[in-house]
């Protein structure tokens, strides 16, 4: 079988092939990034101007929170990237030689480029999520200042179990102002849908390549770790003395790939969850509050939009970026690892 009688030379060949294929794949990803950047550069400039103007009409109050969140995430990620890259470089330098390690060190820069791409989409996802929170704030404020229907079951408010509490943020607004905002919510949500559609066009193919590459890289890491463990137990050559260094380096690279993917999917999933919160808020208004016929029509229209056309991020329409993607990748990796363990006798 393929996994039988693994030698030190096999491990070196595996590592070189993995790094070479990684370089080629990263070059394809980088070329694709450049293509979409140049193709949509003018559209992106107009995109930012339009949505900055729209935020003024709905009093977007989460800008400072978004900046703090993005800055913290970027700083932590760059520090971890530098630390993992330094550990990986040092481990393979001890195990092999300086020339080969330097030759393949461009992989670290390629990973940084992928990291920046993922962060760019994540930042846009955070923006949409907070714009959806703005819609939710308008609905919550309207809920807090509208009279209950006589048949409403009144219980103590508790956000932890999904029972709405009174918002104090916009209590000073007049009823006319609140009614105007409610009437504009459907139009605002349509604009957010167009924003998500634009981002899916801009990032879809790039994220598809990134996910395919991440899956192949994780599988190659699992394969390499298995070979390293096999050789270490036989005590072959220099590796028997420095067993844990390259093994730990590969594990850190695998962990960085998984962390980056989870980070992206987490923020995309948060955006989808905001749509569900908006539907819950509308249901509370329709069932428990005295609202006019006109307001009822506006809310029904918004509910229909959100429920039938929720905001989703996808990879070129192949799959959605949600927790199901992580489970699918995990199942593939676990299946491959089980096959390796069963095929390669210890």
Automatic annotation (TrEMBL):
Cellular localisation: Cell membrane
Protein topology in the membrane: Multi-pass membrane protein
Keyword presence, ATP-binding: no
Keyword Cell membrane: yes
Chain ranges passing through the membrane: 20-38, 70-95, 101-123, 203-222, 242-266, 321-341
An example Gene Ontology CC term for this record: dendrite
Top-rank taxon, per record: Eukaryota
InterPro entries, alphabetized: 7TM_chemorcpt
Gene Ontology BP term (one): male courtship behavior
Keywords: Cell membrane, Membrane, Receptor, Transducer, Transmembrane, Transmembrane helix
A Pfam family recorded for this sequence: 7tm_7
Family as reported in the entry's similarity comment: Belongs to the insect chemoreceptor superfamily. Gustatory receptor (GR) family.
Entry function: Gustatory receptor which mediates acceptance or avoidance behavior, depending on its substrates.
PANTHER family in the cross-refs: GUSTATORY RECEPTOR 8A-RELATED (PTHR21143:SF104), INVERTEBRATE GUSTATORY RECEPTOR (PTHR21143)
Protein name stated in the entry: Gustatory receptor
């Amino acid at each position: 079988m393929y996994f039988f009688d693994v030698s030190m030379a096999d491990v070196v060949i595996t590592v070189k092939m993995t790094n070479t294929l990684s370089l080629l794949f990263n070059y394809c990803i980088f070329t694709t990034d450049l293509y979409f950047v140049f193709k949509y550069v003018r559209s992106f400039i107009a995109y930012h101007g339009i949505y900055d103007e729209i935020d003024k009409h709905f009093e977007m109050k989460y800008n400072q929170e978004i900046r703090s969140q993005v800055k913290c995430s970027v700083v932590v990620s760059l520090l971890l990237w530098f630390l993992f890259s330094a550990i990986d470089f040092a481990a393979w330098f001890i195990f092999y030689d300086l020339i080969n390690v330097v030759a393949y060190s461009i992989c670290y820069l390629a990973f940084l480029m992928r990291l920046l791409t993922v962060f760019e989409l994540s930042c846009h996802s955070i923006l949409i999520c907070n714009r959806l929170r703005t819609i939710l704030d308008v609905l919550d404020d309207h809920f807090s200042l509208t009279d209950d229907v006589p048949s409403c079951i009144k219980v103590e408010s508790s956000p932890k179990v999904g029972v709405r509490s009174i918002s104090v943020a916009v209590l000073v607004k007049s009823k006319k102002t609140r009614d105007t905002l409610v009437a504009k919510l459907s139009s605002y949500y349509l604009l957010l849908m167009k924003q998500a559609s634009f981002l899916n066009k801009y990032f879809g193919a790039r994220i598809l390549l990134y996910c395919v590459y991440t899956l192949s890289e994780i599988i190659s890491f699992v394969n390499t770790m298995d070979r390293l463990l096999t050789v270490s137990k036989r005590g072959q050559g220099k590796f028997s003395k420095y067993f844990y260094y390259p093994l730990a380096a590969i594990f850190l690279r695998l962990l960085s790939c998984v962390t980056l993917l989870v980070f992206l999917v987490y923020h995309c999933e948060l955006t989808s969850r905001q749509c569900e919160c908006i539907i819950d808020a509308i249901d509370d208004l329709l069932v428990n509050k005295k609202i006019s016929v006109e307001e009822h029509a506006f809310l029904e229209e918004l509910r229909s939009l959100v429920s039938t056309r929720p905001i989703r991020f996808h990879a070129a329409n192949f799959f959605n970026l949600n927790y199901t993607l992580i489970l699918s990748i995990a199942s593939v990796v676990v299946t491959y690892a089980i096959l390796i363990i069963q095929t390669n006798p210890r």
